[in-house]
Design a protein that fits this description.
Blueprint (H helix, E strand, L loop, with lengths): L1 H6 L26 H6 L3 E3 L8 H7 L4 H11 L5 H16 L6 H10 L5 E6 L2 E7 L4 E4 L13 E3 L9 E2 L5 E2 L8 H21 L17 H26 L11 H10 L3
Parallel strand pairs: 1-2
Antiparallel strand pairs: 2-3, 3-4, 4-5, 5-6, 6-7
Helix pairs in contact: 3-5, 4-5, 7-8
Function: Hydrolase that can specifically remove 'Lys-48'-linked conjugated ubiquitin from proteins. Has exodeubiquitinase activity and has a preference for long polyubiquitin chains. May play a regulatory role at the level of protein turnover.
Keywords: Hydrolase, Protease, Thiol protease, Ubl conjugation pathway
Catalytic activity: Thiol-dependent hydrolysis of ester, thioester, amide, peptide and isopeptide bonds formed by the C-terminal Gly of ubiquitin (a 76-residue protein attached to proteins as an intracellular targeting signal)
Length: 270
């Protein structure tokens, strides 16, 4: 209790812990860990080597993080091939798992953490609130960018590559909405416009002499697609010209003439 009381003031600025690459709940015994012991809050990390990689495990598992860094530094000055090899393996492990999380680490946390109990996850030199519900891990979202997103409270911890989902306070999936269209949405929108133009064109009688409204049934699919794209670009050009002509020119600048607008249309790349 005395050790925990001395650590409490440091919680406002952060405390240091030294993980060990043996187990997800294994840390170097320091006075800082007394806080978690007194409050009975489990502390985990997900920085474990793959047990199938025997060479890396033998070079990493018997060390804490601080000891492993010292080992890597000292191995660079050694002439022993075994020491050099272990140092390189340890350095490669730290480099490949720079996010301080591995697949084996996530699975180990999932097996060790009990359901419906809060815990703390140490990752990227930060402490995250961890919760396990129905054999699924969640971390509390505390990023400032989500402050106004009331429907985003938890983030799933199921992948090292960042393929996660956001949920609300009831752990129901929450979709982040953006005011800007994604590239796929933009393509779908353009395709719908093109199809609408094509349908309008098909409604026009094919017996008219105007070439732009002639029946295109004899054309190939590639020619039809090109014609639809051209028609779409023409409509977009007209819309852009209407917007530009509706705005008054800035002071000291001459209004845009029709020839200027035609030149701009010629420069548009479809």
């Amino acid at each position: 209790m005395s050790d925990a009381m001395s650590v409490f003031p440091k919680l406002q600025t952060g405390i240091d812990v030294n993980i060990k690459f043996v187990d997800v709940s294994c840390f170097e015994c320091t006075p800082e860990l007394a806080v978690f012991d007194v409050l009975r809050i489990p502390l985990y990390h997900g920085w474990l080597p793959d047990p199938q990689d025997n060479a890396t495990c033998s070079s990493v598992m018997n060390y804490s993080y601080n000891q492993l860094v010292e080992k890597i530094i000292s191995s660079k000055d050694s002439t022993d091939e075994d020491v050099l090899r272990e140092g390189l393996l340890a350095e490669e492990f730290l480099k490949n798992s720079a996010s301080q999380l591995t697949c084996h680490g996530v699975l180990s946390i999932l097996e060790s953490a009990p359901n419906h109990r809060l815990a703390v996850l140490f990752r990227n030199n930060h402490f995250l609130t961890l919760y396990k519900k129905e054999n699924e891990l969640f971390t509390l979202v505390t990023d400032q960018g989500f402050l106004t997103k009331s429907g985003i409270v938890w983030e799933t911890l199921s992948s090292v590559q960042g393929d996660t989902n956001f949920t609300d306070a009831d752990f129901l999936s929450s979709q982040t909405q953006s005011h800007e269209q994604s590239p796929k949405q933009q393509l779908d929108s353009d395709f719908q416009i093109a199809m609408s133009l094509q349908n309008e064109e098909d409604k026009i009688s094919p017996c008219q002499n105007n070439p732009s409204t002639a029946n295109t049934s004899h054309l190939s699919n590639e020619d039809k697609d090109r014609q639809m794209a051209t028609k779409l670009q023409q409509e977009l050009d007209k819309e852009a010209l209407r917007h530009s002509s509706s705005r008054a020119p800035p002071r000291g600048q001459q209004p845009q003439t029709v020839s200027d607008a035609e030149d701009e249309k010629k420069c548009i790349i479809l």
